[in-house]
Design a protein that fits this description.
The protein has 2 helices and 6 strands; from the N terminus they run αββαββββ. The protein is α+β, with helices and mostly antiparallel strands. Strand 4 and strand 5 form a beta hairpin.
Amino acid sequence: MIPEIPFASYLGLRIVELREGRSLLEVDQQAHHHNSRAVAHGGLLSTMIDVAMAIAARSLDADPHHSTTRSVTVEMKVSFMRPGVGRLRAMGRCVHKTATLLFCEADVLDDADRIVARGSGTFKLLRKRSSAS
């Protein structure tokens, strides 16, 4: 589960892999994840993309599991390519970093490794202020 992001935990998203500038998360779909056609709701796919990119961005911090850094989404675009069924995986990656922004991409794949949705986004890293500030 992803305790730092309560909504992601509520949806059942799990981190499978986290390394410098990359992330992999997954979800086992349940009925409450579906739209009226009984496939993954676009909101689930968008959230998976957003979280995969945000975690990939935050992984560039010195210690992403116990980080004082948080990422916020500045902008995001999602393209939906096919219905999402079964276990879904989101693979996030950072493709460019400036002094204040990170540019990331993510794909959501189904059990057959087909791309269900693809997204890109810009993220800003925010460091928590110490209590002495």
